[in-house]
Amino acid sequence: MSSRDIEGEQVTIRHVAARAGVALSSVSRTLTGHPDVSPAMRQKVEEAVQALGYEPDLLAQSLRSGTTRNIGFIIRDIANPLFALVARACEQELRRNGYSMILMNSDGSVETESKNLLLLRRRRVDGVIASLVAEDSPYIKKTILSLRRPLVLLDREMKDLNASAVITDHYTGVYEATAHLISLGHQEIAFVTGAENVYTTRDRLRGYKAAFSDTGRDVPEKWMALGGFDAEYALIHTRNFLSKSPRPTALITGGIGSTAGALRALNELGLQIGKDIAFIAIDEWPLFDVFMPPISSVYRDAKAMGGEAAHLMLEMLNGKEPSESVIETKFTARSSTDGGL
Amino acid sequence: MSSRDIEGEQVTIRHVAARAGVALSSVSRTLTGHPDVSPAMRQKVEEAVQALGYEPDLLAQSLRSGTTRNIGFIIRDIANPLFALVARACEQELRRNGYSMILMNSDGSVETESKNLLLLRRRRVDGVIASLVAEDSPYIKKTILSLRRPLVLLDREMKDLNASAVITDHYTGVYEATAHLISLGHQEIAFVTGAENVYTTRDRLRGYKAAFSDTGRDVPEKWMALGGFDAEYALIHTRNFLSKSPRPTALITGGIGSTAGALRALNELGLQIGKDIAFIAIDEWPLFDVFMPPISSVYRDAKAMGGEAAHLMLEMLNGKEPSESVIETKFTARSSTDGGL
DNA sequence: CATTATTCTGGTAACGGTTCCATCCTAGAA
DNA sequence: TTCTAGGATGGAACCGTTACCAGAATAATG
Fold first, then answer.
1. pLDDT tens digits for A14-25?
2. A146 contacts A169 by C-beta, under 8 angstroms
3. Cα B159 to Cα A220: distance, rounded to the nearest angstrom
4. For A290, which of B3, B63, B264 is closest by C-beta distance?
5. Per residue in B144-182, pLDDT tens?
6. Cα–Cα distance measured from residue A326 to residue A173, given in angstroms and rounded to the nearest whole number
7. Would you say B287 and B259 are in contact if contact means Cβ atoms under 8 Å apart?
8. Residue A119 to residue A341: CA distance in whole angstroms
9. Residues in CB range of A156: below 8 A, 6 or more apart
10. Where are the alpha helices (DSSP H) in B278-320?
11. Which of A31, A106, A317, B207 has the fewest CB atoms found within 10 Å of its own CB?
12. Are the C-beta atoms of B155 and B139 separated by less than 8 Å?
């Protein structure tokens, strides 16, 4: 006998009706708080519900009502500490409002992402919150347009989508970070991050470039590696940059994964942060403040992002128009930006 | 006009039947792969499905079949990097097998956890994978017994539950870690971790104690702080221990949160790891290998845990009896255990 | 007291599928 | 040729709800 066989038959509204000696429609009315229910009826039904331990089947209710109170949440990788914080805050806020979160990793693949979207549609989720792998895939765009459900994008820009979005103002933070390095006398500032087919990269790049041009300097294009958010990409390109001679005197990494890869490369080459090279990370790893030396960073409030995403979703579910919400970034100088020159 | 109004009416099996000019039962048979379907019928149905862009409603299928292909996943905190790795591996494996994951944080609260379990039951999930907040809550036990669904526990021991479990062999790793410190000459080894009402703590504690008693030493009970997995708890107690005189010469922290709190305390007190104090963390933070100095740790494969949890769940869903799976731990000495004496 | 408005209640039709059952064909066996 | 087995199909019941509609009971009105 497997554990599945144990399932005693489910208690349905019919059983309750029988036990209370009333029509099943009356039970439904009582339970959904319809006004036309006599105290006597309420009494009988509640007694029966209590006695049988009845609980309404959300599946059946969903089929009937056309709303599941389920929200799909698609991200590249839940193990990314930043996304994990976003997901947690988002789940908490959704849960407080009676919604559940169906979590799907897209594993950095447009194909998986697309499959996930289609599966969520078949599951009749009420809405989707997603951090897309890329903005330039026509296939994904087509899939999204066919979703026909409220959508909240995380740090992505896509036209004609009728979607809400939580957008980070990367520009400000990265501008400040780069300007800080320049003010310290750095010019050969490497920048290792993801590809330009996502808003995140483009906005950061804008800040990076502006910091140079605003001070009348040339942007050191040769020290830019814009290709992937994964640690492997950052590892290879950081290693490459730092083996050259002359090499960059400072390094900025964009994103959690890039930072991990770059730190590994620095470690491997025996270069000490804040001494042999100045280092700034965009987005914080949880223990950055106790790292030795403490790492300068461009911070954004991931918790706020998740909460805001849930909030925008709930608004759309209440019939409001899609809208955008902006998250600030803040540069904090710590001792990892000390040396390098 | 809100985005919800856009929803053009759903294409159902009825529309397909009408378009193909056949009975709706025939459409169903064709789509579910029933053997008694003529090539002509298949042709007609497939043409209609294609033309209308029909996709079966998983909700309706679930209601009929009694199986949702949804698995509930309950953990204390998805932002815990270890749990995030577990969750990712688990979701990937479930997804490969056609299941989706409903994620719920219990936020360290037995009450929330219990509510989550009940909600998952109402959502008619096919099974639940959970890392429970505590093993000694009769209320939770009662709730779980009423689940009537396959259950996989993560690192927890509960009797008479008919559940599968992924169990970590903490004993070995912690024993080795403690023995290593003892062999270096440490006796005043502090141990800061969660409460004993979860298997995790008990098994670690067993290893810690055995390392002392096996060498005929007294267990330094006064340096044990077993109360909470949260960083705050570890911060306070580490601070407290290390302000004493004499103070511990070594410190072991059990769990991701404890490690974070302890590192903050050390930082705050200006104590340098691997010099002023020997330090070992149980469970690794993602960047431990590039931390300066690198941190000695008791490692376990979180990815394997998640995959194994999914595997055990799938087995139960296929009618197999509940079973247990054991995950190994491995102590690795790095330079954080150098000094202290 | 008769009549009209209000509660209140029960029956039934959806929601979108699957599956059983009965019927009609067609082909193979006697 | 006649009988039968089984393939192919349509119709209807069912999964567990909610919502509409009609009728019964009660209350309010003239």
1. 999 999 999 999
2. no
3. 64
4. B264
5. 999 999 999 999 998 888 899 999 999 999 999 999 999
6. 13
7. no
8. 53
9. A130, A131, A132, A135, A165, A198, A199, A200
10. 302-317
11. A31
12. no
B224-226 vs B151-154, strand pairing mode: unpaired
Helix (H, G, I), strand (E, B) or coil at B87: helix
Mind telling me how many Å the CA of B157 is from chain A's nearest CA? 18
- Determine the residue type at A104: M
CB B208 within 8 A of CB B252: yes
Tokens representing A157?
């820009």
Q: Which of A117, A289, A290, A312 is best to mutate for the B interface (most B CBs within 10 A)? A: A290
Name the DSSP letter for residue B133: S
Q: Residue B56: which residues within 8 A CB-CB, separation 6 or more?
A: A122, B13, B31
Amino acid found at B245: S
Q: CA–CA separation, A136 vs A165, rounded Å?
A: 17
Look at residue A236 and give its three-state secondary structure: helix
Report the amino acid identity of residue B187: Q
Tokens of A295: 């790492």
Q: Is B191 within 8 Å of B252 (Cβ atoms)? A: yes
Give the position of tokens 């995959």.
B307
Q: How confident is the model at residue A340 (pLDDT cuts 50, 70, 90)?
A: low
* Mean pLDDT, range B79-89, rounded to an integer: 97
DSSP-derived secondary structure letter, A277: B
Task: State if pTM tops 0.85.
Answer: yes
Of A162, A167, A159, nearest to A148 by C-alpha is: A162
